[in-house]
Amino acid sequence: MAVLVEYAPAEVDAFIAFADAVEEEFEGIMVDGVEVPDRPHAFDIRLEDGQTIYSRAQEAAAPSAETLPHYSDLFARLRAAGLQAAA
User: Fold this and answer.
1) In b/e form, how buried is each residue of 45-80, taking b as 16+ CB within 10 angstroms?
2) Residue 32 backbone dihedrals phi, psi, to 5 degrees
3) Which Gene3D superfamilies does the record cross-reference, listed alphabetically (predicted)?
């Protein structure tokens, strides 16, 4: 299973940091990213089956770069959705 992230151009560093953290936490899992220049502040995390794990636009009252949850919360959401380290 893979994790897919759509992110705004200004969020490339946040994407890289998140991808590195996920790949360390869930050994063998790949994180793919797509830059979406027409969506400022975008940061959406989905599983490859389309299940949304986090959407800044849906969860933040005023989406901005400061609204990404702690990785521990995002990891818990990924585990609850069935993600585990690759065997």
Assistant:
1) bbbeeeeebbebeeebeebeeeebeeeeebbebbee
2) -105, 145
3) Glutaredoxin
Which residue type occupies 47?
Answer: L
87 occurs within a structural domain: no
Q: Summarize pLDDT for 52-84 with one digit per residue, the tens.
A: 999 998 886 665 556 688 999 999 999 999 999
| Structural domain range at position 59 | 3-80
Number of domains in the chain: 1
Contact 3, 43 (CB under 8 A): no
Please report the pLDDT score of residue 67 as a whole number. 66
Average pLDDT, the chain: 90
Q: How far apart are CA 67 and CA 47, in angstroms?
A: 20
